[in-house]
Amino acid sequence: MSEGTLYDKVWEEHTVSELPTGQTQLFVGLHLIHEVTSPQAFGMLQERDLEVAYPELTHATVDHIVPTADQSRPYRDAAAEEMMSELEQNVRESGIQFSDPTTGEQGIVHVIGPEQGLTQPGKTIVCGDSHTSTHGAFGALAFGIGTSQIRDVLATQTVAMEKKKVRKIEVTGELGPGVEAKDIILEVIRRLGTEGGVGYVYEYAGEAIENLDMEGRMSICNMSIEGGARAGYVNPDETTYEWLAETDHFRENPEKFDELKPYWESIRSDDDAEYDDVVTIDGSELEPVVTWGTTPGQGVGISDPIPTPESLPADKADSARHAQEHMRVTPGDTMEGYEIDVAFLGSCTNARLPDLRRAAEVVEGQQVHEDVRAMVVPGSQRVKAAAEAEGLDKIFEEAGFEWRNAGCSMCLGMNEDQLQGDEACASSSNRNFIGRQGSKDGRTVLMSPRMVVAAAITGEVTDVRELKEVTLV
Amino acid sequence: MTDEIPEIDAVSGTGIPIRGNDIDTDQIIPARFMKVVTFDGLGEFAFFDLRFDEDDNQKDHPFNEPQFQDASVLAVNANFGCGSSREHAPQALMRWGIDAIIGESFAEIFAGNCLALGIPTVTADHDTIVELQEWIDENPDGEIDVDVEAETVTYGDTTIEATVDDAQRRALTEGVWDTTALMKSNADAVAEKAAALPYIDE
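Predict the joint structure of the above. Result:
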């Protein structure tokens, strides 16, 4: 078993007891909730006559069902309105802080936690959402839970967990121009598989990771779960501390920052930490990665051929055949030139300010292809405001993109933003499962934000490096 | 809270096979059916998009076939339940009638959600699962016994060695799979922990 890693230390720090099942009762430092997975948990509390034990360690937002166009209440979709009202009532009755759309703080739960300074190194963070792994970018131990576990956390501020193994994923070297965090994580999942991480927590390390900004690290940790790992993290460093110092929480309490820094330093993985597994990837060899199939592990470098099912391990061949039929791709071809109908720049993976800035650089002076409907959905109201202050909204709108309000949007199509029929979508989101974007015949191609806007401009999957001179991340 | 949590030593019932690796939670319960504030009634939406076409006509799918309508033991392949953390997925399966799942492997959050509902997720190797799935097709009325305690699955004349994760086995067989009351009883230790953590303000 691992020893001396950040995971071991944060686990130890938050252990309350060993349960009769052999599981550990783990204290939860931050519980994030949203409208889709929490209402049933509040219902269960009520049935059992229990109250929220630590409302001050709980924070709510609305993201999955919120419309990104007209947000006036009541929402046009009665089901969405009911979910929102239910959340409003639950947080009011329990005294839980709620970043609702009237506060200017609303957004995707994995965007607002970090930007408000709620996400911190060495915290345990849970949320009824599998992409909670995002918060590991700050050196937190963060993972998704189901609704019965939300009930546990609301009632006790603890969760029953089994300790996992730790796999260090070292990404060496310097990324080339046009290659970014999204490409790293798509490559990790391509190599290790969608279930390669089951039973593991991923520690991302190495020069290419250390050189990423916090947003890039969030994109990587975000998709740990797509590789089967329930949590992923990066050890906190100066990049982390600089980012944290700028958040509300620590701007208002600079003394708290100084007080906590020794703790943050103490939970970093030791130089001689022991890992259960180590994988090394040469970051300098990466090119933009896109998916050709219907799992995030079915990816390929933009200039590489789509694999033949026969060339894959036997247990992957059937899935590949099925996926290629659904996506209508031909093995041996590259994904370049694959026609798209929709471009979606958004989601908890890639809708933060630097994502929008880099995409806007590509878009400036270009036009969205006439056959493509393209939208930008900022990750939070703050990201939206900051982007507008820089004039990014104008760049996108002048090029023909729709500029929307914050929410999960077309990542999972729970609001009105959905694919129609068999539309193909260049998407900066995290899942290309069949049906994921709201249409069971829809086709999703996952890629980085810059690759998304490049596809929007040309109407087909395009190597952004050939479209325009692009900068290093 | 004094409600007794049932001990689940074994589950018996007829089987239903769902074939394929990486069957994700969006397939088990499409997101549009999650616009609800309770889990009631989710059963009818299990595998909805695989079971019905645009005009709500039934497609070929085990969940539509008459011989499997009373089944309670689901036999699946690898990485079943990958994707989102939505408990709506096992809730939909449970409300459709599933009491136990046997597969090659399960996504972690999905298996945890199943445990929280008292549904065992039992594993066996690929060939064993394929044989079981074939047997179910030939014997839709055949009883399958999933012995959680002994970690075996018995059908017809065959008994296979299966694996149940240790913590899961203990939680199910000792009736401690619903952890709320158990963890609530440690409230003092939780409060001490909260007071000791550097990042929590008084």
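The mean pLDDT of chain B is 96.
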